[in-house]
Design brief:
It is built from five helices and seven strands. The chain is an alpha+beta fold.
């Protein structure tokens, strides 16, 4: 068994669609990034890659490549899962914490779990998604950005 940790941050800007956990979330702001800026998927990818000692998301999907411009992050997650399989790893479980002041995420979590588990081909019992605010402190509290932490357990 191996453990990996992932972390990602994206700036929030008005007029962008907001993708979290593989779905679109209704909000006046969205993530700014080279891809669709899905901070949750990016943290999950880094946790899985780190657990397998395969580098990070920037190594595999550089933001300097036009191939990944505006790409759906679910495609990146699927590619990471394929890399794990190629290296004889399977996912044990994932624990994810999203840090976001607004909007409230609890109503979206069941759909996120369903979508992400389908991409990763794991049971919904193997993915925990939680959300917290930062009590109006820092860039998250000022609603300037969103961050996400992920811990992954993989098995060879």
């Amino acid at each position: 068994m191996r453990i990996g940790f992932g972390f990602d941050v994206h700036q929030l800007v008005k007029g962008k669609k907001f993708y979290l956990g593989g779905i679109e979330v209704e909000h006046e702001k969205g993530g700014l990034g080279h891809s669709d800026a899905d901070v949750m998927i990016h943290a999950i990818c880094d946790a899985l890659l780190g657990a397998a000692n395969l580098g990070d998301i920037g190594k595999h999907f550089p933001d300097t490549s036009g191939e990944f411009k505006d790409i759906d992050s679910k495609i990146l997650l699927k590619r990471v899962c394929d890399l794990l399989k190629h290296n004889s790893y399977s996912i044990g479980n994932l624990d994810v914490t999203l840090c976001l002041q607004q909007p409230k995420i609890a109503p979206y979590i069941p759909e996120m779990r369903k979508v992400l588990c389908a991409v990763m081909e794991i049971s919904e019992d193997d993915l925990s998604i939680k959300a917290t605010t930062t009590e109006k402190l820092g860039f998250v509290g000022r609603e300037e950005g969103v961050s996400c932490y992920a811990v992954a357990l993989i098995v060879k």
